[in-house]
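Researcher: Please predict.
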Amino acid sequence: MGAILDKLALIFICIICFSFSDSQILSVSGVLLLIIISSAFEIMKGHRGTWLLASLYSCGCIFLPELICGAPLILYDCLRINKIWAALPLLTVLPSIGQFSQLQIVILLTGIFVSAVFYYRISKLEQQVSSLRSMRDEVTEKNLELDDRNRQLSDAQDNEVRIATLRERNRIAREIHDNVGHMLTRSLLQSGALIVINKDEKMKEPLEDLRSTLDSAMTSIRQSVHDLHDDSLDLKKIIEDCASGAENRFKVNVDFDMGSDAPAKIKLCIAGIIKEGVNNAVKHSNGDRLDISVREHPAFYQLLITDNGSSAEIRETGIGLKNMRDRAESAGGFISFTPSQDGFRVFASIPKNKENI
């Protein structure tokens, strides 16, 4: 908006300068041509060929010196696009400057001075605007970085809380198993012994009820312990621990995309295959990169372990590969081993079915 007001002021100065010309037709034509060129400057702003308009007007002054009255506005536009040389043909009018009146020359020089002042002011303003935009972009970038760090801290805190919760569940499961479970087992044995040595028929039924109650309590405790243990299985943590153990040999990349509600049987199966696969890679692979991928799909779980070591053949006589195959088959899935000169590949797929839940 500031540039438009500046140009309107310069047009007004140019019109006053043109008004002192002897030919009214030339004055009106010069003003209209000046307005058209200046408007085109704004419409074509940023276009490479904009300077041609200023050059054409400046060259026109060679044949019609009266057009020099529009020099303030043309000079202002050339300064704004950093093409001051496009206005150089205006200097060709200097030898003919004597044909203009003194007042006209004063107005012309004043207009040129005003255009220089306007350009200096608007250039400073544009610099300040550019600086403010840079500051805004920098602040926005810093805010994004801060949000990312806060999110990472929040995720880390949530992960610590989750790990602490899992540890507490394991501790509770161990306490129940070691204390309550052992005491219930002892009570079951004692009640069984009492039933054997009991000679009183009146006490037989109460003792049987006591044994049945203790047996039900033992079953309930055992189920609770298993549930706590199953919930506390953190498959991602297990995989990361396996990967960290191989980092002295390989550059390990882990891609984990699996929900936390997978059955414990599936988690144990995948964890066992990964542990065996990583151990085999450490022992037998001559590569330097190990990729572990675990993904959950709508109908199945998928596991992929690859390394870039060369291997032309495979012998499934070892217990490690057999254990991995047995684990996959026990969960209703299948596993394949693919050796090649480009590396060794272990692929497993385990379906989601009722037996795994």
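Model: The chain has a mean pLDDT of 76.
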